[in-house]
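Researcher: Here's the sequence for the chain we discussed earlier.
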Amino acid sequence: MAIAASKLGRLVFDTWSDEDALVQRLRDLGLVRPDVTDDDLKATFTRARDEHERIHPNDRECNSPEERVRVFLATFLTEKGQAWAEPLRSLRLPD
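Model: Thanks. This is the structure I predict for it:
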């Protein structure tokens, strides 16, 4: 099953290679709750990467780890973060 694109997923994709920068960007934009630890956020990145590796290579194109992170971050998101995580509709939101 494919995971549809979101504004949050695109942000994650743009910063995917640097976890510290990604955590900072999520915080700077007010997308995650301030009480969530950096370690908790980074654990979601690891979980998404690990799960992605278990997906058959033929299915990976439609199941990107950056969109999987969006799903795993759900309990950590602010109201703005939830709006940015909404598949497809969020792509029309301003920064």
